[in-house]
Amino acid sequence: MSLAPGRPALRDFLAIDERERLVALAQTVRGRVLLFVVAVLAVSTYNSWSEAVFVVAAAMAFATLEKQRQLILFAATYAMAFSAFWLSETAIEENIAVVAAQEGIGHVTPLLLAHLALITFMIFSWSALMVVRKHKSFVLARRPVIALLAIYVVFCGLTSLDLLHGLPRLALWSFLSVYTPYIWFLAYALGDQRARDRSPDTFQLGTFHPFWGGPSSIPFGKGAGFLRKTLSKTPADLAVTQIKGVKLLLWSNLLLGLKVVLTWLCEEQLNIPSVELAVGAYLDGQGFPIALGWSALLWSTAKFCLRTAYWGHLFIGGARLAGFRLPRATWRPLEAQTLIEYFNRFSYYFKELLVDFFFVPTFFRVFRKHPRLRMFFATFMAAGVGNAIFHFVREVDLLATMGLAASIESFTSYLFYCLVLATGIGISQVRANAGYRPSPTLAGRLWSFITVWGFVVCLHVFSDESREHTLLERSSFLGSLFGVS
Amino acid sequence: MNVDGKLKLRKFLKEALEKHGDQGELSDSESLFVSGRLDSFSMMQLVMQLEEAFGLDFSTVDFDVSLIDSLDEIAAFVDANASA
């Protein structure tokens, strides 16, 4: 054994990836079978048994069969994507069905349209990669995110502003429903075309909603550029990465278990309502104890955090099984002592997306002579503007069900959330750069915890995804929790 | 980049790593950002540090993280782009 000296006993015990015998075992057939079985058990809490077996087998095959990697990644990713349609695991078919009903089209099934839209998107993406390689001055090559968002805006306009009708509208809407959850993946791939060691197109396309990454619009593992640099290089390196992957999968299951227990306790035993119900009850003038309101807010925030961490660990665990030495998606968020630290720790790959596509371009272009303003503004563009755009774009289905105007109006509360969050994180960033360090004492740590998480919990009132209540109604509810009516 | 510049840079990077709870060794060729040891915000702080110390203008560079992913790469980048 070669464990780190001076580390707490529990951490030493959990550091199984540092045990030489286990690392050696993980390089044998017996060890791989053991990793496979444990991983399948862990992944099956999210996927069906057959999907869990498929995901883990594909990940381990990718890691082991070096010459077939591109084929495995591409085939496994699109097998999962198409099977998700068959198993109705995505909202895409539902979105298509809404517009099909609006247009009175019953002879083409949403399932068929979803398949055709995904094939069209794959061709579109492949063509886009070729175009930006050939024409480096093309807007798609120079400003991929702006170009992709412009396409989104045009398609949204065409499908929701009474400009198209019948099958053309349905066809375009089907494409938009598939295009939207893939935007950020395609943006990473387009950006990677500038790299000297860029990955082949099949590898790039295989990283769009990769088979380990679930339905999330956040690219867990970023794009091909980041993934190829983090790939394990030696058998020992791979064994350590896979053991870490299994550890993370087990950790995700512990978090899931905690969420199940807390849900039972809070919702079934203590009857704590959701934020949506709590705000509704408050607005209806029902007698609503302040303590119950705070409980609703605290529990809702905790549930959101547990869900985010569970998914992140599950997806990164899967990627590590494939041999990618990826950093964790959530890393001890409760230890965050400042808001910028919270932003870094809570959802790493979402933060990276915002930094890569909003912070970095802003940072290199504006206020270069004013370092503090430059840092604040770039942070604001990421945590505020980027965050708002990501969430608005992600919920494209609301354009069909609510219409463009109502969809934008219902987004006001989340927009406010982004504005306040970004201002807080921006100030925290500037303070950190100016040398501010929170007190390392116990009292200082406690104060940091209360201020950071107090801010996050209070702000959660506005980020609730139901879109049920207006900004004013939510503000009024939050005020009531402080005794202001 | 001279020895003094590299020492200063190493000190800055070690401090950034410690802020991330990373007390590990830092070799000249080791990946900082792609490996996940440091995040994008630390990268931007490094960019500011390099702009200030060496008069670099990153807006004229087709920026990619691999340009400054290790001490060796940063030194090579500075040598190729420093105005003074």
TrEMBL record, chain A:
It comes from the Bacteria. The chain crosses the membrane at residues 72-92, 112-132, 144-164, 170-190, 376-394, 414-434, 446-463. Keywords: Membrane, Transmembrane, Transmembrane helix. This is Uncharacterized protein. It comes from Candidatus Accumulibacter appositus.
UniProtKB/TrEMBL annotation, chain B:
SUPFAM superfamilies: ACP-like (SSF47336). InterPro entries: ACP-like_sf (IPR036736), PP-bd_ACP (IPR009081). Residues 3-82 form the Carrier domain. Pfam families: PP-binding. This is Phosphopantetheine attachment site.
